[in-house]
Amino acid sequence: MALTVRNVSKSFGDKKAVDNLSFEISRPGVFGLLGTNGAGKTTTIRMILGIMSRDAGEITWNGKPITSENVRYGYMPEERGLYPKVRVLEQLIYFGELRGMSRLEAERAASRWMDRLGVTEYSRMLAEKLSKGNQQKIQLIVALIHDPELIFLDEPFSGLDPINTNIFRSVMSDLIDAKKTIIMSSHQMPTVEQYCSDLVILDKGRSVLSGNLRAIKAGYGHTNLSLGCSAKALNTALPIAEKYGLRILEKQADGCEFKIDGDESAHGFLRDLIGMGVIPERFEIREPSLHEIFIDKVGEAK
Amino acid sequence: MKDIITVFGFTLRDNIRKKTFIITTVIVLVLILAACSLPTIFSGSKGDKGADVTPGEKKSNTCYVLDQNNLVPGAISALTEAYPNIEFKKGESGKTEEYKKTIEGDKSVAMLEIIKGEPIPSLRFTVTDFMSGVPTDGMAQVVRQVIVADVLSKAGVSEADSRLVLTDISYTTVPAGKMDVTGYSLGIVLTLLMFFAVYFYGYGVAMSVASEKTSRVMETLVVSAKPSRILLGKCVAMGVLGLIQLTIFILAGAAGYSLLIPDDFTISGVPLALSSFTPLSAVLILVYFLLGYSLFAMINSVCGATVSRAEDLQSAMTPSVIVSMISFYAAYAVMFIPDPGIRRIVTYIPFTSPFIMPFRLLNENVPAIDIGISIVLLIAAIVLVSIVSVRLYSASVLHYGQRLKIKEIFKLKV
Fold first, then answer.
1. Which CATH number fits domain B61-166: 2.60.40, 1.25.40, 3.30.390, 3.40.190?
2. The complex's ipTM?
3. Fewer CB atoms near the end CB (10 Å): N or C, chain A?
4. Contact predicate B227/B393, CB 8 Å
């Protein structure tokens, strides 16, 4: 089970949308496709799906071209789209049938998924009458109704309220447990960190970072110190931090985030704080977040 | 094939339930039945010449005959004999104004004045208005016959010879060709119908494609099935939808024709006959409708795929509309040009043949070779246009933003 993207390029006129992109997904799980707006994420997904031609390169699934005959794939595009004047169940059955299911199979699968996502009551409603969150759920069912093994989710969590986000997360966990291969494009870094084992970060169509997320983070080492304390305690802490060369990344309501050069300076800072009678509520030495890595890499590329 | 059938079924079900389809069907049905009822409505109020009136039945119309100088003594009896459902009364010359006032408010009353003139008297009819339905031409003819009979009698001509002279000669016209007034009118109506059907249902294809782009469902759709299959299923569905609607109209027309139109109904004296409408011509007209529709539907699908908003569709369809309009007018003009060479050329051109052939099939004995060549060329054009259309459709369905121009679409790679 391997998706291989090798030296793929695509241009629109003079603009290079994807430039010599390569990556490989060799095991089930969630693969992150990250990048700024216009970085080439959607173009990459469309080329993998075969709905857009590529100028160069090769894309294969288990060594064969990706076609509906070789692999069952599902796609939830960033621009959600349903037939506004068609009843929900009817269009779910339609898309199920287009993906090779019989009408009965499609109807059963649609009912099962609607029940799972809590939208059964809307099955006879026109899609245009649904709220944005519910339309998004229907769109997710369209992508998953035929039980695909390769799933593309373009910004799956955008615009969802916390309750619907939780429902989507539980579906995502189920898909991971079911050993599905998921390619997720998202701007929500905490979500990507939560689910993605491997990723590629695109900038202007080029890969600026790719690989296993844990390995990437480990490569950066401990670069951050998160301090939790009161505002009064922070006033005491800041001169000490300066003494140990800690740079302020962000002041927060309940503390401060520092950039550190190594564990030693952080330990010294903690010793002095305690010596001054300040006991921090939180003291965490950690690797940089994906958000910081993204800013670092994309900012660096710019 | 399964994808094509799935898209076909979905598109057909979706469009057949649309208000536009239902309302259009109902309105046209009402118009067809109303048109079929017109002859019955008018023949009932006109009081046609020679209509039978049973003895003792009350006469519905009155005509005052004023012959002050007794110029045509036998006029009233001759008119009564010719028009038994009209009561002809001898009028009084002093009541002319009174008669006029009555006639002004009552269509069933008329006045005939016989006025002295040289060499023969003249007639003046007073009727309510031009739609009163009084058979003035026929009545004038009857009075003229009375005058001529009188002249012949005075000249010593026997009554039998006089009657012989005044009898109209009967004649019939037998066309050597296939054309008759019904076939001619029906040919023009079918050509117009063909144009509107091709335009209307072709527009439906473009609208359907544009709607899928506007609602952004296109991206999900092209991942689910190949664009060529989507396009084919959609075009066939809209074509079948058109056929269903046309069949409803034709059945309603046929029912109206047989149930509502009187058997002896004539247009300008020519009986309405559908003898030119043979089963073969009906099948061929159907074939030309399907092929003509397919050709323009394929072109229209590309127009629909080039726009991102439904509002831009009209302008995107301009090239297709221009081609169909030119083709229609070329075919229409050729109907009035008897040159067989020109007719043959227009029959062979794939864009014009669907518009000229219904007329030719109903009004000419079209050589089988002409029909064969025309259909083969039309199918070849459809295949060619479909290949290009599928490529352009696939290239442009995922394009959003400004409307694509033709040369830009050709630059896009699928």
1. 3.40.190
2. 0.77
3. C
4. yes
